[in-house]
Amino acid sequence: MLILMEAEATRAQIDRVCDRVRELGYAPHEMPGAQRVAIGVTGNKGGIDPGHFKRLDGVHDAVAVSRPYKLVGREVNPEGTIVEVAGTRIGGGELTVMAGPCSVESRDQVLSTARHVRSLGATILRGGAFKPRTSPYDFQGLREEGLELLAEAREATGMPIITEVKDTETLPLVARYADILQVGARNMQNFTLLEAIGGLDKPVMLKRGMSASVKEWLMAAEYIVSRGNLNVVLCERGIRTFETATRNTLDLGIIPLLRGMTHLPIIVDPSHGTGVAAAVTPLARAATAVGVDGIMVEVHPEPAKALSDGPQALTFPMFETLMAEVSKVAGAIGQPVAQLSTPSKTPSTSAHDEARA
Amino acid sequence: MLILMEAEATRAQIDRVCDRVRELGYAPHEMPGAQRVAIGVTGNKGGIDPGHFKRLDGVHDAVAVSRPYKLVGREVNPEGTIVEVAGTRIGGGELTVMAGPCSVESRDQVLSTARHVRSLGATILRGGAFKPRTSPYDFQGLREEGLELLAEAREATGMPIITEVKDTETLPLVARYADILQVGARNMQNFTLLEAIGGLDKPVMLKRGMSASVKEWLMAAEYIVSRGNLNVVLCERGIRTFETATRNTLDLGIIPLLRGMTHLPIIVDPSHGTGVAAAVTPLARAATAVGVDGIMVEVHPEPAKALSDGPQALTFPMFETLMAEVSKVAGAIGQPVAQLSTPSKTPSTSAHDEARA
Amino acid sequence: MLILMEAEATRAQIDRVCDRVRELGYAPHEMPGAQRVAIGVTGNKGGIDPGHFKRLDGVHDAVAVSRPYKLVGREVNPEGTIVEVAGTRIGGGELTVMAGPCSVESRDQVLSTARHVRSLGATILRGGAFKPRTSPYDFQGLREEGLELLAEAREATGMPIITEVKDTETLPLVARYADILQVGARNMQNFTLLEAIGGLDKPVMLKRGMSASVKEWLMAAEYIVSRGNLNVVLCERGIRTFETATRNTLDLGIIPLLRGMTHLPIIVDPSHGTGVAAAVTPLARAATAVGVDGIMVEVHPEPAKALSDGPQALTFPMFETLMAEVSKVAGAIGQPVAQLSTPSKTPSTSAHDEARA
Amino acid sequence: MLILMEAEATRAQIDRVCDRVRELGYAPHEMPGAQRVAIGVTGNKGGIDPGHFKRLDGVHDAVAVSRPYKLVGREVNPEGTIVEVAGTRIGGGELTVMAGPCSVESRDQVLSTARHVRSLGATILRGGAFKPRTSPYDFQGLREEGLELLAEAREATGMPIITEVKDTETLPLVARYADILQVGARNMQNFTLLEAIGGLDKPVMLKRGMSASVKEWLMAAEYIVSRGNLNVVLCERGIRTFETATRNTLDLGIIPLLRGMTHLPIIVDPSHGTGVAAAVTPLARAATAVGVDGIMVEVHPEPAKALSDGPQALTFPMFETLMAEVSKVAGAIGQPVAQLSTPSKTPSTSAHDEARA
């Protein structure tokens, strides 16, 4: 923290600021300049709220110098964190492809989608069972039934599953099924949920809030990590701006900066990031090229009939194109597409599945 | 819902769209135009997701026509809702002033502030006991002790209290103390919390999310009202924009539109809306002049020592100025400042308080 | 400028930064702290580009301390500037009302509007003759004919006129007719135009750009003032945000801060600020209450037939309501509505006008 | 245009709307629905201003259906426009690399940079001679001397040059030197400048305004094209959002949509788009992967000494890395990096240059 005094600040004002610094348990360091005095503050762990000083007489401004986050900062793990998920991993130089429907809607829908994306190289299956929706009248997900269908798809394909957890009430239930918990953009600052997840030993993917600054996002991750759960993955999914031609504005420019700021793996979601199916594959290529640890996309056997997010879902052929193109770009930057260590079960459909199909 | 077909849409494509409308349980109404066909959709209750149609072949666009919210819409209660709170009311043509510290920090702080704001005409005491903070390392509130201090201040002054509830876990506890529950901007789309509050018979003030559109805000209110709790008050507290000179951009322009859209009372919070103490009184005047049901401001005996939001807290003399100026503006537009029906206890301080003072 | 070195910066790196400061003609002041060294930079007039230092080895950040603008800063004229316009003035504690049509469309339209707004107390007539339009196919204004009609309305009513100048080409022509030049939001950083206006001795109202920070806006004013034209008035007209319910988001929160930053008079335009006629009067009241030197609104005899900005134009009766309400609010905050020193000609319509009416 | 009537609109109101449509020279098409009547409007060329109808009694909303732009729309040239520049071309499936300093500062600086970027494959040299700067006290460019240095660099390397034109006053001068005129973000809606450029037969690159919607950007291009100059290239350079960690938010998500909307070539500028040198190469890779016709980056022999935009300039080695990586990504998506048809002069420096070096 650097406190900049007004040019005309009096000796008494400067002294009072130094006293206040001491009162708070820190050490003031007076640094006289030609036009004004600056006061450095040291002895703090973590950030100091500039609000403590801005209102004192004679203070021009108070500027935070040290970073407010501690455990998620790059310097804590310069190599970068690798999050282990059943049979695969996120981070460590490979590109993880997560794919699946926005919402789990039916057994056929989720199984056919899971098999399709698995056969093309996706290693993690996404699907929503508890859906936070803007309207109380919209489809809210199949709930536990949806989780069971996801588990069945995992069984059938060998892919671990990621699914959203929307509250602490359903956290134990969702955690029982999910390989990775997803915290949605609206819950990025649901601190009680973050703390509860922080107490689990389960990977979590934290989506950036719609209007969250990078600092706020990292502080949200710090909530989880500071409770002991180090398996946090960040997911950029677009921010809200004045531009309405796309559903959100995918902020790829932040990725290289984020890399320097944190050791956590980074995923990009071009489906929510654009909201337009035709834009998903180009942006998946772009996300790959900018350098991320994975991408997450929505795929649906029949997008026009999807119960949520139809306009942004890829058809099966579109996903095939995506995988082909993303693989080429990943290859060009020397990043292999991540594999499952468990053998894919896609070719051998189980009798159980056959019977119902 | 109006579905606009492409100019070159074929007969078969139009038929398929009409079939899809029927499949969803609605009625299609073909409306041939000179250049293109439009298809009206009727028979729906509440909004239809345009996503159902946007991906069908031959569809140019799908435009929502009816409003997605039902119970909070102006037409449901054209007179406007009045929310009754112990001893006072919000709505109905009066201007309610809510004031108090950002966080409850100590007995002296909250009691002296409560007495001060009460003596100048505030009718509802604000104060945070559970504080959602961006950093896990920041002061998180006095929790139940804070609630008890608020209750003591209520006892001492006769003012009902409003305090933030941040999760379902602490909802029963907070609801036991609070006269009005406050849902903060970060929780505006915490649907589980909204639903839980919807099941109570307790007034609630719902703050607008930092980047929530008006429609999303009203849908969040709809979550509460649709569960049976009609005592919802909206609070505009500034939105996030590119401008960083103020903490947020207070969106007063939305107020007249909101009036036409909903019957719920509307409060404006110029403290969070600007983040700068010197701007709070001018914006409180402006909010009053634009026409609202109340204002909420932060007041602190010694802002420079506040544990949260010091830069935006009013000192006692600043609050006195605010009340004088806001009263004049309210008078100019013919809106009386709301009174407490219970006699103010401020003049007669209890022996209990005297002893400790 | 304060340059913050990295905690691990070497002596050589610090020396190199100091050398660079001297190379640029400034003086470095080393200020050792407990964790890092800061280097104060003095000897500069106006702002220093932090870019000079941010890329040097060992530099953590470079923070501007002094304000980049000089002539428009509050301290240059703490009393506040009063801009004299033929027969009236902007600033100095009165509230100026500027009103008139968006575009000048016909003799009848502009004269009837001018007489109406004059009769109700407006002192400056607005009207666009050269219209910058988003589409090249939209109505671009009556050009010189429009200026002549404005001049005729001035003659008829005694009101000085404000009209937009959109380029240096038409500046001499527009300046011949206008009492106040208006620079639109799109031209706020048309520096060549600003410089040309800076060379004139003619009042100018500079609208804030759609996404201009306060600093950028003041720097744009500095372009004009630094060329010698001190008669600059600022106009807040709404900024672009994610919210689309209103055309723009009127940023009233910035007004009190702006007052502290600059001595220039400040006008608010609630017509562009909201884009919705029903919201204009409430926001005009709010702007008055927040404390400005004037408001500017669009009025049209028949908004549904307006060639531009119909949705936001006030009808004649709506403007009458606005004046009544704004006067009351202005009275409540002790600010009289500005008067014309020249006698109003409204009652005595000239024979010339009579003949055509 | 579709006009949606209120559910309770009367017959007379509907008739009056239809009359108004006819008055404006269009044809109304009444389309009765179950809940409300819609009125289609046909017979228009180009867009109709919805403002004509929104204020009429009984009108709920007026929705534009046809696109407002005509000449820049994709359907006008489905193959995509190729802009021919001396010795090279933009569009047509190749990736053009434009590189050079932000500002031309000295003969050595521009020549060494030009030779460096040419030797690595850039085909167009960028450099600013007339610099629009936020502050009137900042370096404004070397003006004509800068143009001469650019011309000398063109002579030395064979690369055509792109340089910014900031006003109509200097347009003839700049056009005499430049192979491509650049219109900066601040001038995107400087319609007089656009019209003047529209009258020339010279390629122009139109940067997106800081807060311009895609539609506004395309309409700005329409200003140029509608005057006869078809050689327009669009350049996405980042938009202004709440996020301040990067200078702007590079909007790559818009690129695939833009492709569908317009036939004009598209360039991305990751230097301004991020404002951080370390982010430029990753975003250049991403822009290449998303599918554009070229990229433009700032390169400086010694960024720490740059007179403008130092923090975002690439050093020579950084640009070498960029070219290597971008080439690989371009290869992966099957897009060759554009070449100069004129032989590069880099290896054989002229005696003229040698003498001065």
The strands making up the biggest β-sheet of chain A line up spatially as 7-8-9-10-11-12-13-14
Number of helices of chain A: 12
Counting DSSP E segments of at least 2 residues, the number of strands of chain A comes to 14
Question: How many structurally independent domains of chain A?
Answer: 2
The CATH class of the largest domain in chain A, by name, is Alpha Beta
In one word, what is the shape of chain A? elongated
Oligomer: homotetramer
Helix proportion range of chain A: 25-40%
Biggest sheet of chain A, in brief? 8 strands, parallel, barrel
- Rg of chain A, rounded, reads 24 Å
List unreliable stretches of 5+ residues of chain A.
Answer: 344-357
What is the rounded distance between the termini of chain A?
A: 64 Å
Short description:
In chain A, about 35% of the residues lie in helices and about 15% in strands. Chain A is of the alpha/beta class.
Structure description:
The structure is a homotetramer of 357-residue chains. Chain A is an alpha/beta fold and 357 residues long. Chain A has 2 domains: 2-63, Phospho-2-dehydro-3-deoxyheptonate aldolase, domain 1 (Alpha-Beta Plaits); 74-332, Aldolase class I (TIM Barrel, Alpha-Beta Barrel), CATH 3.20.20.70. In chain A, 34% of the residues lie in helices and 17% in strands. The first copy, chain A, contains 12 helices and 14 strands. Chain A has helices at 11-23, 51-54, 107-119, 144-157, 171-177, 191-198, 214-225, 254-261, 270-274, 277-290, 316-332, 351-356, and strands at 2-5, 27-32, 37-42, 59-63, 83-85, 88-90, 96-100, 124-126, 161-164, 180-183, 204-207, 232-236, 266-268, 294-298. In chain A, the strands form 3 sheets. Chain A has an 8-stranded parallel barrel, surrounded by 6 helices. Chain A has a 4-stranded antiparallel β-sheet with strand order 2-3-1-4. A two-stranded antiparallel ribbon of chain A has the order 5-6. In chain A, strand 10 (180-183), helix 6 (191-198) and strand 11 (204-207) form a beta-alpha-beta unit. Chains B and C meet through helix 8, helix 9, helix 10 and helix 11 of B and helix 8, helix 9, helix 10 and helix 11 of C.
